Records
---
Amino acid sequence: MTIDDLTPLLLAGNDPEPVLERQASGSSPFVFTCDHYGRLIPRALGDLGLDDGERQRHIAWDIGIAGVAEQVSAALNAHLIAQRYSRLVIDCNRPPIAASSIPPISEATTIPGNQGIAQDAANERRRLIFEPYHRRIAEVLDRRVRDGKPTIIVSLHSFTPIYTGVARPWHIGTLYHRDHRLPKLLLRELRAEPELVVGDNQPYAVSDATDYTIPVHGEARGLINTGIEIRQDLITDESGQRQWAERLIRILRKLEPELRALI
Ligand SMILES: [Zn+2]
């Protein structure tokens, strides 16, 4: 028996790379991240013990946000860095030490493939999915800073309309912690649209314990940043994704000069 027999590779064969990029040489100051873009599961992990229905629910990924992110990135010629694997394999917006990094339970669903996971197996998921994604974001940001490119980080997410039985009224929310510059402007623009219910740090706020991308890549570098959460029932289909992408494109284009003046 060889070492390889004892420790089969988590990602192998036809498993795609975790990092997906669009407009990598885009001219926009906006850099979009999408931690919960995809819902792939490495072949070595099978289906994590979940049926098809569970693997398509919000617990597995951010429903609808991939379509929005692709359109916004293309229209603004802005770099998008996204992650293809399910948040149930490893959540790329959680510190790896958090209990919810590889969740044994998500909302009310037990994830059989995550029960009693060995430290080695957890480390392997981190090394092959979490780390390449965040390393790539860091490389891109390092290079932009070196090249003197203005950079604004927008972390795109979507949220389930009902969580643990409680309905969420907001259509869209800005999420932030220490840096209020972009959220303040974004709230002003979103609240100018009378049909929208806008969340200010709703349905949740950013924190160091429950988030990774904004604290590490935005706040620690002093880059202007925000999270954006869109309610999933509004972007389930293509027309909803297009409509919400168009709204974000219009607003971010309008805000760009104001933001450049702050950099
Ligand atoms: Zn998300």
---
Amino acid sequence: MADILKIIQQRHSMRVPFNPNRQVPKESVRQILEAARWAPTAHNMQNFEILIVDDKKVLEKIGNIKSRVSETFIRENYQQLSFSEKELVQKKVGILGTNFPPDWRNPAKLEKAVRESVATPLKERIRGSPMLLIVIYDSRKRAPASEGDVLGFISLGCVMENMWLMAQSLGISFHILTVFSGDTVEKEVKRVLHIPEYMKVAFAARLGYPVSKPAKHLRVRRDIEMFAHHNQFENNGLG
Ligand SMILES: Cc1cc2nc3c(=O)[nH]c(=O)nc-3n(C[C@H](O)[C@H](O)[C@H](O)COP(=O)(O)O)c2cc1C
């Protein structure tokens, strides 16, 4: 009980460069996939396929695919930013603005940031990772009567968390890259990996080991009393 909570609390996004020459052991990959295998999914549909990409040539091809940050991302990203550690600690949600280019953090410069955003190769996001796991799903199917397949997406989230927790428990760094499911990138990734047209990319994760010991970064969460409601919505907390 204590162990699982510890792993849940220690799981985090590792955004630093990884060592391209330190492979993730095959047995560990198997355990991560075993964790995915036992994820709960709506109607036990097991609505996922997972591509394990560790061939250097394939990684390079994917790394050369270019992506451009969308206007919507820049604008909506801004709304989630804190501009100091103090602000983030107070807010308890969102992320630090210092993770992003200066123009993305200044409302007066958002227009300029959108105008000047250039396409960059995915290798700048993959940052040396020796392995990508790309989770895809069949867009022709949905969980029974699930409008927009919300239940299917929740299921894919369960797959993500199971894999992430297992990676954490094995000491393997894990970083989600949503950019893989953006329209143009997804199309190119599907071409490189021979993924059928009807399959969609849910998310990709890069796995590996950091090149150097990363600096500790601030992680915040709301207190339980801020999201738990006892019996009635207006009764905050556990009661
Ligand atoms: C569905 C989903 C998509 C995410 N996409 C990205 C992403 O594209 N890039 C990234 O750096 N982090 C991504 N993250 C990680 C979140 O930003 C991160 O989990 C959150 O800020 C909390 O930080 P922690 O993972 O270190 O606890 C994603 C997480 C989830 C669940």
---
Amino acid sequence: MARAGTPQDLTITPRDRRFGRGVAQDHWWISGDPVATAFYNALSATFPKGEAFFVESVRLFRDGTSPKLAAEIKAFVTQEVMHSREHVQFNKRALEAGYDLSGLEARVEWRLSITRSRPPIVNLAATMCLEHFTAILAHQLLKDPRHLKGADAESAALWRWHSIEEIEHKGVAYDTWLHATRALPRGKRWKIKAKVMLFVTRNFVIDRTWGTIELLRQDGITGPKAWARMFWFAWVRPGMLRKILGAWLAFFLPGFHPWNHDDRALIAKAEQGLKTQAEAYA
Ligand SMILES: [Fe+2]
Ligand SMILES: [Fe+2]
């Protein structure tokens, strides 16, 4: 496989956008669908604390990086801080629309407290794995309009904006990890990253499933019906988890790098769509 690495001419551009201020959110903001709403609300509940964790994990290894990577880390931090800010607002609107996210946030806090008790290099590895996760989710979200079909305009714009920037900075935690582990033999590096990826994937699937089921419970959808509907949504139609499976597996290939797949054309197209929408609402 070609070892492309992060493109030399990549620019990571923090876009200071605000979404949904002063706008009430529908309880089921995405096509009136409780399952889609629960899925994205559960994901959003993790971002403010989760992305703060990514930032602190990467920052610890910034010393000694090349000027290019140091600049990319800086831009990554700015982007993640703004994502946290906008998801705090999004979560506030979900609360006003009738969802209680406090249990989900407490679970994120609990999970992070365990991770933080591990050495910093393990935290960096976990961040690098979760950043791959967010990048492949983001790619799928932008690629297939069915995922956000029927979402209200402001919320759809928030998720697209976040997706654009997740793709744009997808190599930063990975390159920081490569820098931090440069003295390790390749086999050992691979073993650590594979082990950490399996571990964070397990936790990601368990925790997001739990969160989605909990939000469905708040809507009175429980038992086998809740599980069946969630399974159908995640794995069949629109099938986000099924669609990212190949990209998830690619992580384990020798020579993997997030930029082996250059998806900047997808970002450019999505950005054009966002601009057109912003102009329409201006
Ligand atoms: Fe983010
Ligand atoms: Fe990110």
